[in-house]
Amino acid sequence: MTRSSTTRRRFLAALGAAGLGGLTGCTGIGALSNDSDVPTATPRSPPSGPADTAATVRPAPAQAASGLSPDTWIYNEGFPGPQLRVPEGDVLEVELANGLPRETTVHWHGVPVANPMDGVPGVTQQPAGPGESFTYRFRAEPAGTYFFHSHVGLQLDRGLLAPLIVEESDPHVEYDREYTVVLDDYLDGAPQPLYEGTDSGGRGPGMGGGGPGMGGMMGDRRPPYAALLANGRPPNDPQRLDVREGQRVRVRFINASSATYFRVRLGGHPMTVTHADGRPVDPVAVDSFRFGAGERYDVVVDATNPGTWELLATALNGRESPARALLSYDGGTSAPVSPSATGRELSYGDLVARTPIDGLDGSPDRTFNLTLSAGQSGWLIDGQAYPDADPLQIKEGEHVRVTMRNRSPVVHPMHLHGHFFQVGNAVKDTVVVPGHMGTVTFDFLADNPGNWLFHCHNLYHLESGMARLIQYIE
Ligand SMILES: [Cu+2]
């Protein structure tokens, strides 16, 4: 979907935003089950007072006229769902009105909301059943490029995803227009678990030497994707991102896929990366970047090279045709020119946050050394498969350090709910841990009490157990 500054109004219209009247959902929850013997800390409350922006998110099965598979589930009849766009600092109130035949939630990926608003079923809320609603309420800050999606089972890979843009009041780069590009891997059937441990929630005992695809093939299994999409469009029907010569264009890239590690390239132009996971960085010019599921990059492109240029997002762990869009000058229809296969690629070491996280000087108060690995029936953190896994317990105010060592051959995009973390000189919420003993360390400040999921954002890895709770204790 093409987005411009008018999209806030369009979104509100499209979503049939109600007034700021009474809440119909349950805004708070009682204590969910807590197996720990240690008393847990009380989460922050969501903001009170009137909301600045209200909207309704309506998940439902795709209609036949949409051209999507009948197994696809979408938000507000759009795929991806309509972009939710709000000014930084607004109190946002979103009613989830569940039109699905199954229970669901919404997770605001990357936004450090109060814990009861985080949308993790069984951890931060009871999910909304069919026909039920739940009202989310949070302050839209800090500014950045986010997305929202279901956090129930494999629903993200059924299509329940949409961009969330929190507009900066004072951007550190100037630009004339902007686009959002949502990259996704599309299934034309209902998603199925890929690993033995995940069928109907049961985790069967010993799978022996491993079933099909197990054992030594615990490599990068992916579902049978029908296509890689950019803004819901297949490669043979690309969206045109219109520009004029001399303009500077901001492009917000969201990897909303469930299992795809993308490499993004643009023909004829360098891309200057300005934000990583929504947080501003010192601008750095590159020819390509890679990102894992859950990561976002914003770039600016100076339109100084008239023509029609391909924007390609190639699966580094798949064989589908690349997702595709076109950078198109003045509505021209010249044949698209492909990007070069070579050039400078972004690395995490290039990212320097303009606002580092305060309070992380000195040595950490608490350190976790975690091994990422493949088990017989799924993916593990330190040998355990969530939910049969020990919570990582921390206390408010602590400087926490997490080191992840990847003993598997595949990448794991690890995502922390409720917090940004410092990784090198970057501030992010999702970081790819490379395969073959790749090691990544991040630090965060424990400033948002509650129970938070920390997990691989490859949905199939998550489903098979590659997650832990980070739990604040007294
Ligand atoms: Cu993973």
From TrEMBL:
Alphabetic keyword roster: Copper, Metal-binding, Oxidoreductase
Domain Plastocyanin-like: 63-169, 178-331, 376-468
Cleaved signal peptide residues: none
Chain residue ranges for the region called Disordered: 34-71, 195-222
UniProt superkingdom: Archaea
Record's keyword annotation contains Acetylation: no
Low complexity bias (residue ranges): 53-65
Claim: Metal-binding is one of the keywords in the record: yes
InterPro entries: Cu-oxidase-like_N, Cu-oxidase_2nd, Cu-oxidase_C, Cu-oxidase_fam, Cu_oxidase_CS, Cu_oxidase_Cu_BS, Cupredoxin, CuRO_3_CopA
Molecular function (Gene Ontology), one example: copper ion binding
Polar residues bias: start-end ranges: 34-43
Bias kind Gly residues: ranges: 199-218
TM annotation in the entry: none
PANTHER family for the chain: FI03373P-RELATED, MULTI-COPPER OXIDASE
Protein name per Swiss-Prot or TrEMBL: Multicopper oxidase
